[in-house]
Amino acid sequence: MRELPSLLPAADAVVLCAPPTEETRGMFGAHRPASLKDGATLVNVGRGEPVDTDALTREVGSGRLRAALDVAALEPLPGAHPLWRQPEALIIPHAGTFTDASAKDSATFLPRRSWR
């Protein structure tokens, strides 16, 4: 955690898989998405509380970041939430499984260079 602030500006992708604890709640607050470089992808597959959903929504909505998540701080993410309408956001059910569409959806969402 001490190294995280210095690592984020150079990261192409950040994968969060953290449980909801007092230590992790808000660990990816507004300042952390803003510190990611343009074009970076934030993946959250843990719980929603570590990520500031409003900050992530702003960064994804601006086109600066991509996001892939199965959980948000608001669970379930309300149907009218702006993240649902963002082309740079991939939101999947919090099911812990893959479907026949998973590979196609992932390949469409992530740039080719990410698969190398």
UniProtKB/TrEMBL annotation:
Signal peptide: none annotated. Keywords: NAD, Oxidoreductase. The keyword Transcription regulation does not apply. SUPFAM superfamilies: NAD(P)-binding Rossmann-fold domains. Residues 3-96 form the D-isomer specific 2-hydroxyacid dehydrogenase NAD-binding domain. Gene3D superfamilies: NAD(P)-binding Rossmann-like Domain. This is Phosphoglycerate dehydrogenase-like enzyme. It comes from Streptomyces griseoviridis. The lineage of its organism: Bacteria, Bacillati, Actinomycetota, Actinomycetes, Kitasatosporales.
